[in-house]
Amino acid sequence: MAPDPKAEGEVPLDKIEERYTFYRLSDIDFDTASHTLRLLKRYRKLQIRFVIIRDAIISYARPFSGSRGRSGSFYKFPLELLPERHVALHEELMTFRNKAIAHSDIDFVNPTVANWSSDKGKWFPMSLRNFHNETKALATKWKTILEMVTKIRVNLRTECEAIEDKYFLDKRQV
Predict the structure, then answer these.
(1) Are the CB atoms for 117 and 124 separated by under 8 Å?
(2) How much is the pTM?
(3) Which residues are CB-neighbours of 67 under 8 A, at least 6 positions away?
């Protein structure tokens, strides 16, 4: 009878394979973010730049937001692979993603409802905070964001290679 890996404190191979797959999918997301950020060189209109920044943030943030595995496990990208000097930038991107892109946090979006009703009918328009300042700020940081993503990918590649060497080297498929 084979020893129970859980009893010995080892992670079952299927969980390792699933985590490895999550890492590889994360790399695809980071690659997408990198290519998207490079588009900023081509466009100057703020509306277009916002869409590009938004797409890059969505791709970048996906691994950090979590993913469900086939086994029911939940995977989030390990912050240990994030370069320490980029932690503040990472937090800025995640905050913008969480408060303005993926969700509409009232304290961040800061909506104002007006009452323009008249005897002709009710009318309650709502104005929302625009994100021009955030978009401009992030658009000026695109090279730094790209540098951060590149370093994350290098760290991720090192982690994947360690898993490959330890667990998969003898499991070659032809």
Answers:
(1) yes
(2) 0.82
(3) 22, 25, 74, 75, 76
Residues 23-38 have pLDDT tens digits of: 999 999 999 999 999 9
Top-confidence residue, 11 or 115: 115
The secondary structure of the chain, three-state, reads: CCCCCCCCCCCCHHHHHHHHHHHHHHHHHHHHHHHHHHHHHCCCCHHHHHHHHHHHHHHHHHHHHCEECCCCCEECCCHHHCCHHHHHHHHHHHHHHHHHHCCCCHHHHCCEECCCCECCECCCCEECCCCHHHHHHHHHCHHHHHHHHHHHHHHHHHHHHHHHHHHHCCCCCC
Length of the chain: 174
CB 146 within 8 A of CB 38: yes
Backbone torsions φ then ψ of 109, nearest 5 degrees: -75, -30
Is the per-residue pLDDT at 5 higher than 80? no
Question: What is the pLDDT at residue 1?
Answer: 38
Give the pLDDT confidence score for residue 91 in this predicted structure. Answer: 97
